[in-house]
User: Fold this.
Amino acid sequence: MNQKRLQNLCLGIFFIVSYLFILPLFIASILKLIPMSDTIYMIVGNFLIYFITLLFLIFYYKDSLKKEWKDFLGNWLEYLKKAVFTFLKGISFMIIVNLIILSFLSNLPQNEEINRNIITTLPIFSVISMIFLGPFIEELLFRKGLKNAFSNKFAYSIFSGFLFGFAHILASLDFGSFSAFLNSLPECLFLISYGGIGYFLAEAYYETDNIFVSTIAHMIQNTLGVSLILLGALL
Assistant:
């Protein structure tokens, strides 16, 4: 890996770490000074994380985003088909892998349980954050931010998928004690399913060089998940 690609890799990882850890800790330290309920705290905190991250990423990638949006509008049908096909590959892989994992484990990943609770208690917030804001931000971070660090599609897709999967199982790992951490390690099996989705999204972006393709595929995936949970809550 040459120096330029290494710099792009370090910068991409720094953006991801900032989004997952640094920014949330900074916002949490400020919000703790303001009296508010836990629900309001969560909504305001997450909104600020999304807003600040999205504003920064749009500004940072503004030139390429304009170019890719123009390209998407000119080839929207082809790209939409690609997005749907990517979603179908990702959801098929996830269903198969999760069925195998759940034959060994008795519970869904902690990240899934947290999302289910948020969706059923805060449906409007969940639709905005999980269907629109989250996918676009994650595609900019895990796909666009890492692409220029690799010259090989397979290596890029594997690495992007791994980081994407790891970010989604962090909530499942218990760092309270060493024994608790060991007990939570089986949850890492779900890295395969989340990572697989990330792999197909990265592959789609690498092949089209258009972030809106993988973003739409990601949005379709999340729309299906949110809709099924809300439907299940109503029945």
In short: The CA atoms of residues 40 and 194 lie 29 Å apart. The chain has a mean pLDDT of 94. The chain is about 85% helix and 0% strand. The longest helix spans residues 3-31.
